[in-house]
Design goal:
CATH architecture of the largest domain: 3-Layer(aba) Sandwich
Helix content: 25-40%
Distance between the termini: 25 Å
Number of domains: 3
Radius of gyration: 21 Å
Order of helices and strands: HEEEHEHEHEHEEHEEEHEHEHEHEEEEEH
Number of helices: 11
Oligomer: single chain
Strand content: 15-25%
CATH superfamily of the largest domain: HAD superfamily/HAD-like
CATH class of the largest domain: Alpha Beta
């Protein structure tokens, strides 16, 4: 297996790692609805001694509101177990801007609270001469706020984005995310913003420091944010197949977005994880096997756990890709969702 490959774990993940950095949308819940296995998996992880911090690119909500929602979904959570992109953006802001300076905030209550807590004077107009613009998602952000942000950035204000997610999962489908709104300001100004949210590992490192953990595990559904952030922060990452990125996406993942573990849902925290091995030219994971021949991915077997087929396919595809031998994306089936 290459250095970018899947890991094996002969004990439940909750016993190997002391902290789970858990994404929210697509992992613990979807919109206002729970995800199967989330409550069971997280409760079992806590019982095994694993601590939890919920790390989200959503900057619009207060940690208290997030904790209340999780608790209502049978995932008891304290506000200090929530790390938002708003908090990370305020921390990033503090690396260059002294407390007391004017900052134009475009976003929801969570972002306003986090910026104010760092001692900044919040303004709403470019005419107030802010030294920075901090932008996060909120459902009521419109043209007027985006225009003020653009005016301020054109005049030299530092543009800080809470995250650059282009889409936002909701109960009805995928809506424009903060990245799409930030893109409007970028298009108007030509200025590339700094970002505090995933895939930057800033939030993960802040959460690990807050918890005092030494063996963190990132848990997410998006390869381009959650798992890319894990790779960027040199932390192992678990990809759960309950949200945006599919099993096929994992098989075709670029090196910087590859997970270290793949599983159906959060109940995977309570189980060991097999590591694919080479056997006779095939990558084998228990009852599943995969290989790449002439840039075509081939899969075989009827495993008891269908995720084993995904694991074998990831191992075969990544090994082939790293050696320049494919696979052709057209040969990669959906496998499972």
């Amino acid at each position: 297996m290459t250095a970018r490959g899947l890991l094996g774990c002969d004990v439940p993940l909750a016993e190997r790692y002391d902290l789970a950095l858990v994404d929210l949308d697509g992992v613990a819940y979807r919109g206002h609805h729970p995800i199967d296995g989330a409550s069971e998996g997280l409760a079992g992880a806590r019982a095994a001694g694993m601590r939890l911090v919920f790390v989200t690119n959503n900057a619009s909500r207060e940690p208290e509101a997030v904790a209340e929602q999780l608790t209502g979904l049978d995932i008891p959570t304290r506000p200090d177990e929530v790390m938002t992109a708003a908090q990370a953006a305020a921390e990033l802001l503090a690396t260059r801007v002294p407390a007391g300076e004017r900052v134009l905030v475009v976003g929801g209550a969570g972002l306003h609270t986090a910026v104010a807590a760092k001692g900044y004077r919040i303004v709403a107009s470019a005419d107030d001469e802010p030294v920075a613009v901090v932008q996060g998602y909120a459902a009521d952000v419109g043209w007027a706020q985006l225009a003020e942000a653009a005016y301020a950035v054109q005049r030299g204000a530092w543009h800080v984005a809470s995250n650059l997610d282009l889409s936002l999962p909701t109960a009805r489908g995928f809506a424009p995310g903060n990245g799409a709104l930030v893109g409007a300001v970028r298009a108007a100004t030509g200025v590339e913003p700094s970002s505090a949210g995933k895939p930057s590992p800033t939030m993960y490192r802040l959460a690990v420091a807050r918890a005092g953990a030494s063996r963190p595990l990132v848990v997410g559904d998006r390869l381009d944010t959650d798992l890319a952030g894990a790779r960027a922060g040199d932390m192992p990452g678990l990809h759960v197949l309950t949200g945006v990125s599919t099993a096929r996406d994992a098989v075709l993942a670029a090196p910087g977005e590859r997970p270290h573990y793949v599983a159906a849902d959060l109940r995977a925290l309570l189980t060991p994880h097999p590591e694919p091995v080479v056997d006779g030219g095939w990558w084998v994971c228990r009852g599943a096997a995969a290989r790449v021949v002439d840039a075509v991915l081939q899969v075989d077997g009827l495993p008891d756990d269908p995720v084993d087929l995904v694991r074998a396919a990831c191992a075969a595809a990544w090994d082939a890709a790293d050696s320049g031998a494919g696979p052709d994306p057209a040969s990669v089936p959906e496998l499972l969702r």
